[in-house]
Amino acid sequence: MAFDGVTIANVVSELKRELIGGRLAKIAQPEEDELLLTIKTALGQKRLFVSAGASLPLIYLTDTNKPSPMTAPNFCMLLRKHLQNGRITGITQPGLERIIHIEVEHLDEMGDLRTKTLIVEIMGKHSNIIFVNEDGIIIDSIKRVSAAVSSVREVLPGKPYFVAQTQDKLDALTTDFEAFRQALSGKPQPVFKALYGSFTGISPILAQELCHTAKVDGELPTASLTQQSYQTLFDAFSEMTAKIKEERFTPNVAYSFGKPVEFCALPLTLYGFGREQAGSDSQDRIVVYESMSALLEQYYAERNTITRIRQKSADLRRIVQTSLERNIKKYDLQLRQMQDTEKRDTYRVYGELLNTYGYSAQPGDKSLTALNYYTNEMITIPLDPTLSATENAKRYFEKYSKYKRTYEALSKLTEEVKAEIDHLESISAALDIALHEEDLAEIKEELTQAGYIRRKGSAKKQKITSRPFHYISSDGFHMYVGKNNFQNDELTFRFATGNDWWFHAKKVPGSHVIVKLGNASDLPDRTFEEAARLAAYYSKGRDQEKVEIDYIQKKHVKKPSGAKPGFVVYYTNFSMAIDSDISGIRQADE
């Protein structure tokens, strides 16, 4: 999924159409690297979301508001001081660079009209939002970059703004045939790689689309291109640049097996899928959107949420991972010690046989061969020649007693450590599916109650507002998925009734899934399969081709006394192996 220069051009086209002439009514900074600008225009109120996050930089128009911190960050306060009520006079993109300039006209402290520019750079980990004055001098940025961080460009107040030229690429919008041919022929690599490596703003998927349109094999080396191949490729290239210049964009997403595989601002034809409008549910399709903002918001909203939650859950993950590694090392050591105790019964037999046949041993003997009356076979018993047979027997009984005590102690310890490992892995699985800060709060409380996190001072237990996932099966049955162990216990033992159905991935950490039976006598096969898919998806086995799922009526599921949250036992159950594709299962509106 490439957020390339052509995608930026599409976004700029929409922003110019929607925002030029609008006034900045509100400036908020929901996260340390995000801005949410509310603009009042003749067409109504608009919101522009901008993120300079290293893992997921974005910019698009949205209807969704986000809560802001009680105290606005310094960069937000600075923008409010200079740009509040300012009028947007221009939105431009230099060439096909992944850069957007938003010019804002405002009155300064003296009442004079000034123009300042908010520059949004969508460049992966180097993404930034930079505020500059009329002379191109940086006033401030959402991320400050010193010389200690970058030797190429400093982004600090008082420094001149410029774009670092780190790649020798041509501007696709001004390239003629001869420059096009020379750029490709000078790169001894596959044609599609030479395309995106030679021109600014061209992503790999767009390069492959150009090759497909021109009927040129993009995997062939550039040396194999004929004059005719160069011409047909340039014709497709020229048609693409013409669409960009004329702002004839077609935001679309390619879905394969129900999952998005690529998006583009220009038509994707290389997949050979039929075009449909957003909202269709075909497994293989090209979905066309009315705007690039709508496409980006729908595709990236979930990914952005997951990215943010992963950042906020980093401390919890570190605690879980550290504890997990420590317990796994302890468990492995205990298992090795358990192996050493496997000889205990042999020592007991040696002692008993020496008491029976020891009279035949001669002083100084290093071994004794006797009949093992337990197996009716001959056995050779090693002896200490300095000890008598009776003393050797006593020594073997002492070893037996020692190893027996060790085995009994280790059996209990290994059981406890294994339960601890299972518990920590279940918490790790819960962190993987957490979507909101409330979910993290519940996981943190579980870690606190388990003793992994110390409750600070007189801090009270945090009020939990997280709720389980809620789905509706194709047959209309309500299906609930626990997000963590507390919710798993709540669903299974307080929410579900005896005849409701319970699902869980077999021998894999994951969520409890409850299907409410309601007034029905039983569930249809399709609902059984959909609930099993939910159990597979919300488990550590979701990346496997098939996951084995146990399912049983809730009345047969028990919780042992003193067991950790989420731990249950059951003795009779059904099982099925199923994939973890839940794309066709409808999530309930809460």
Word description of this protein:
The protein is an alpha+beta fold. The chain has helices at residues 5-19, 74-83, 177-185, 191-198, 204-213, 227-245, 292-312, 314-340, 344-357, 389-433, 437-449, 485-495, 525-537; strands at residues 23-28, 34-41, 44-51, 58-62, 87-92, 99-107, 113-121, 128-132, 138-141, 252-256, 259-264, 275-277, 285-288, 367-372, 377-382, 469-472, 478-481, 501-505, 513-515, 547-553, 574-578, 586-587. The protein is built from 13 helices and 22 strands.
Q: Could you list the spans in which at least 5 consecutive residues all have pLDDT below 50?
A: none
Shape: elongated
Structural class: alpha+beta
Total of helices? 13
Strand order in the sheet with the most strands:
21-20-18-19-17-16-22
Largest sheet: 7 strands, antiparallel
Chain-averaged pLDDT = 90
User: How many β-strand runs?
Assistant: 22
**What percentage of amino acids are in beta strands?**
15-25%
* Share of helix, binned: 25-40%
State the distance separating the first and last CA atoms. Answer: 30 Å
Radius of gyration: 34 Å
Key descriptive features of the protein:
590 residues; alpha+beta; seven-stranded antiparallel sheet; five-stranded antiparallel sheet
SSE layout and pairing:
Layout: H1 5-19, E1 23-28, E2 34-41, E3 44-51, E4 58-62, H2 74-83, E5 87-92, E6 99-107, E7 113-121, E8 128-132, E9 138-141, H3 177-185, H4 191-198, H5 204-213, H6 227-245, E10 252-256, E11 259-264, E12 275-277, E13 285-288, H7 292-312, H8 314-340, H9 344-357, E14 367-372, E15 377-382, H10 389-433, H11 437-449, E16 469-472, E17 478-481, H12 485-495, E18 501-505, E19 513-515, H13 525-537, E20 547-553, E21 574-578, E22 586-587
Parallel strand pairs: 12-13
Antiparallel strand pairs: 1-2, 2-3, 3-4, 5-6, 6-7, 7-8, 8-9, 10-11, 10-13, 14-15, 16-17, 16-22, 17-19, 18-19, 18-20, 20-21
Helix pairs in contact: 4-5, 8-10, 9-10
